[in-house]
């Protein structure tokens, strides 16, 4: 038996009544189809991931992940919603899913309205304000007023080095000097500020860097197409 956990959770949201969420670790293998030579083990890993979260047989509705700030609602289980980076649902038969390797998953949850969301935030989506857009969408479409958030695993501000072309698009407070004239960008901090400015309270953070932690694949550490997954669903 492996001692590696199959999935991790934002601790403060793990026991939230009505909400199911998790992040798949390397114990489950890659859940990314895009660079997979053979889709069957990837699909098996996705099924196993759903099973670990108690969602056996669930259709996973995949976030297209196009590095935008586009948001969509999901009212019935479908395979994927393209051209968006955040999906929101209030349906208990829907399971939201996205894949990552350094970009940040963000779990959104309104315990009063029983509405949940899953965001994919890399630097482009963060710059475009995808977290802000997702919270606004929950307010406008579902009347949410008490949204909580959990920031999942992603590449941290000590590890994520970017060039000046990227750095100049972000506020100085999210930047630090890198090596060779490059910059370190703290995407988790940038997303936390977006969420807090949108009235989200509290904003939790699992605090795990994908580049530094062996439990999750990192594109920057090992760019082989391996992806971990995030699932958000209502119970
Ligand atoms: Zn790091």
Description:
This protein has about 240 residues and is α/β, with parallel strands linked by helices. The chain has a single domain, classed as CNF1/YfiH-like putative cysteine hydrolases (4-Layer Sandwich). The protein is about 20% helix and about 25% strand. The strands form three sheets. The protein has a six-stranded mixed β-sheet, covered by helices on one side. β12 (about 175) and β13 form a beta hairpin. The longest helix is centred in the first third of the chain and has 14 residues, at about 40-50. The radius of gyration is 17 Å and the shape is globular. It starts with 6 loop residues before the first strand and ends with a strand. The model has no long low-confidence stretch (mean pLDDT about 95). Bound molecules: zinc ion (ZN). Zinc ion binds near residues 159 and 211.
Record the SSE blueprint.
Elements: E1 7-8, E2 19-24, H1 39-52, E3 60-63, E4 71-73, E5 80-81, E6 86-89, E7 95-100, E8 104-110, E9 115-121, H2 123-128, H3 130-142, E10 148-151, E11 161-162, H4 164-167, E12 175-177, E13 183-185, H5 187-197, E14 203-205, E15 228-234
Parallel strand pairs: 3-5, 3-7, 4-6, 10-14
Antiparallel strand pairs: 1-2, 2-15, 6-9, 7-15, 8-9, 8-10, 11-13, 12-13
The structure holds zinc ion.
The site of zinc ion (ZN) has 6 residues, from loops.
Quick summary of this structure?
The protein is of the alpha/beta class.
CATH superfamily: CNF1/YfiH-like putative cysteine hydrolases
- Beta-strand percentage range: 25-35%
SSE ordering: EEHEEEEEEEHHEEHEEHEE
Tell me the number of structural domains: 1
Bound ligand species: zinc ion
| Strands ordered across the widest β-sheet | 1-2-15-7-3-5
Net shape? globular
Largest sheet: 6 strands, mixed
Low-confidence parts: none
Estimate the helix proportion, in percent: 10-25%
Number of strands: 15
CATH architecture descriptor: 4-Layer Sandwich
């Amino acid at each position: 038996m492996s001692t590696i956990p199959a999935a991790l959770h934002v601790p403060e949201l793990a026991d939230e009544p009505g909400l199911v969420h998790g992040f798949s670790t390397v114990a489950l293998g890659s859940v990314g189809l895009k660079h997979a030579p053979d889709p069957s083990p990837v699909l098996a890993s996705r099924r196993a991931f759903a099973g670990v979260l108690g969602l056996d047989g669930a259709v996973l509705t995949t976030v297209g992940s196009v590095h935008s700030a586009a948001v969509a609602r999901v009212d019935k289980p479908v395979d994927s919603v393209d051209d968006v980076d955040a999906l929101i649902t209030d349906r208990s038969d829907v399971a939201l899913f996205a894949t990552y390797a350094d970009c940040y998953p963000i779990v959104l949850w309104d315990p009063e309205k029983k509405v949940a969301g899953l965001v994919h935030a890399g630097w482009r989506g963060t710059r475009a304000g995808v977290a802000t857009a997702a919270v606004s969408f929950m307010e406008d479409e579902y009347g949410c007023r008490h949204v909580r958030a959990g920031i999942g695993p992603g590449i941290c501000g000590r590890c994520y080095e970017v060039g000046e072309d990227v750095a100049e698009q972000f506020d100085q407070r999210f930047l630090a000097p890198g090596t060779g004239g490059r910059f370190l960008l703290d995407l988790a901090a940038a997303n936390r500020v977006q969420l807090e400015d949108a009235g989200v309270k509290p904003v939790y953070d699992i605090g795990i860097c994908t580049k530094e932690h062996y439990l999750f694949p990192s594109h920057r550490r090992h760019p082989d197409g391996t992806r971990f997954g995030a699932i958000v669903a209502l119970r």
